[in-house]
């Protein structure tokens, strides 16, 4: 146990160093600016939480975008009703997402396998439909919920037109221009916003590490290994699954609140099934059930999204200018299907390749490469020892 604690401490130190120095480390690949790094951190938190459910228990949820949306809406309402300080917004989002996850998990976890996945997808789509239409007075429908200027004395407009922010008003906080979220006066934009998200990511990763190493995490692995055998021994696995589902939902709510912190608005599109599918891709691509895999998957997908979605026909035509004109036009048309708005095709192909050749994700590929180096080193050591032995 002492050796494991040292390994975990070393892992946390390396992880914290990489996250905090990301602006320098990712600069050579064109990712060293705050907006993209914020996405890395936020969706990394989202993937970490999803991995606690899917990676440890094997229960595949297609409805985690609902908790992401709940977190965003709760955070924006905190900004509208209370204060632009991010602390109450984050706590409110995590609590709201946890309660919503408890409700959905209580129903969905009565089934397993594909039936569980379909139930979570159905709940997520119902949540999206409610946010888009029925709950328009709360969510502002397709326009989305946004932060507004303070409601001045004598004004009678609704909360969707102006905000009351009782805490800011009580302390006489003055606003100039568009309201910006803050952490006790520190504006959550630019590099300040990234480092705030980075610290939250480090804390979230530490909690996930403790869950993985705990008896609770061991029980979740046992459920994934053989849930029927546990049931036959008299162990009720549903409470463990419900707690894991709630924790996973709270992580998603935390990610949703950070999306609202860095960009104070909330829309129903964050609750679409595509957002749920994206976190599934992140986890499988990086390596489900591993600590660092979902973070790698989130970083790869968000980076490729930024790169491939920004490529247009002009860029492609210029890139293939060494070809004859007719061939240049043909190759540009073919390649354009995989970039810009069609970049998801590239993501789909990459996902297929990983699933076929690396079922364990990128982490499995890294482990294979490291295994080859270790095997070669052992072979060299064995050869050296044989040569060093004296002849009889």
Structural features, described:
With 392 residues, the protein is an all-alpha fold. It has a single domain, classed as ABC transporter involved in vitamin B12 uptake, BtuC. It is 70% helix and 2% strand. Strands 1-4 form a two-stranded antiparallel ribbon. The protein has a two-stranded antiparallel sheet with strand order 2-3. A hairpin with a 2-residue loop joins strand 2 and strand 3 (186-187). Helix 1 (2-20) runs antiparallel to helix 9. It is globular and about 85 Å long. It starts with a helix and ends with a helix.
Strand and helix layout:
Blueprint: H1 2-20, H2 22-25, H3 34-57, H4 65-81, H5 86-108, H6 113-134, H7 136-139, E1 145-146, H8 166-170, E2 182-183, E3 186-187, H9 190-213, H10 215-232, H11 238-262, E4 265-266, H12 273-286, H13 293-308, H14 313-319, H15 325-335, H16 343-357, H17 361-388
Antiparallel strand pairs: 1-4, 2-3
Features:
globular; two-stranded antiparallel sheet; two-stranded antiparallel ribbon; 392 residues; mainly alpha; ABC transporter involved in vitamin B12 uptake, BtuC; 17 helices
Report the β-strand fraction as a percent range. Answer: under 5%
Strand order of the largest sheet: 1-4
Instruction: Count structural domains.
Output: 1
CATH third-tier fold name? ABC transporter involved in vitamin B12 uptake, BtuC
Number of H/I helices: 17
Round the mean pLDDT to the nearest integer and report it: 88
Secondary-structure element sequence? Answer: HHHHHHHEHEEHHHEHHHHHH
């Amino acid at each position: 146990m002492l050796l494991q604690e040292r390994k975990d401490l070393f892992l946390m130190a390396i992880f914290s160093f990489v996250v905090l120095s990301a602006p320098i480390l990712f600069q050579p690949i064109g990712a060293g600016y705050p907006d993209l790094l914020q996405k890395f951190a936020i969706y990394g938190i989202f993937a970490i939480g999803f991995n606690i459910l899917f990676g440890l228990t094997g229960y595949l949820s297609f409805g985690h975008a609902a908790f992401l949306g709940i977190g965003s809406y709760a955070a924006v309402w905190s900004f509208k009703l209370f204060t632009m300080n991010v602390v109450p917004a984050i706590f409110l989002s995590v609590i709201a997402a946890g309660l919503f996850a408890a409700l959905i998990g209580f129903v969905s976890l009565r089934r397993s396998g594909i039936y569980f996945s379909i139930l979570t997808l159905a709940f997520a789509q119902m949540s999206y439909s409610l946010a888009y239409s029925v709950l328009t007075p709360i969510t502002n429908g397709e326009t989305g919920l946004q932060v507004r200027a303070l409601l001045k004395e004598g004004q009678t407009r609704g909360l969707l037109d102006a905000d009351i922010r009782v805490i800011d008003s009580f302390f006489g906080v003055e606003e100039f221009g568009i309201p910006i979220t803050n952490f006790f006066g520190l504006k959550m934009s630019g590099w300040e916003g990234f480092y705030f998200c980075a610290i939250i990511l480090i804390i979230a990763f530490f909690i996930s590490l403790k869950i993985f190493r705990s008896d609770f995490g061991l029980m979740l692995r046992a459920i994934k290994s053989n849930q029927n055998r546990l049931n036959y021994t008299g162990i009720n696995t549903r409470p463990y699954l419900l707690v894991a589902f709630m924790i996973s939902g709270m992580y998603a709510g935390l990610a949703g609140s950070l999306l609202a912190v860095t960009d104070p608005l909330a829309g129903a599109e964050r609750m679409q099934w595509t957002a749920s599918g994206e976190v599934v891709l992140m986890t499988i691509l990086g390596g489900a059930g591993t600590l660092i895999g979902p973070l790698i998957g989130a970083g790869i997908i968000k980076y490729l999204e930024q790169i491939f979605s920004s490529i247009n026909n002009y860029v492609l035509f210029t890139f293939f200018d060494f070809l004859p004109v007719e061939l240049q036009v043909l190759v540009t048309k073919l390649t354009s299907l995989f970039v810009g708005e069609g970049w998801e095709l590239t993501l789909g192909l990459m996902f297929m390749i990983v699933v076929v050749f690396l079922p364990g994700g990128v982490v499995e590929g890294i482990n294979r490469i490291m295994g080859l180096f270790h095997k070669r080193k052992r072979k060299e050591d064995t050869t050296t020892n044989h040569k060093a032995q004296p002849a009889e």
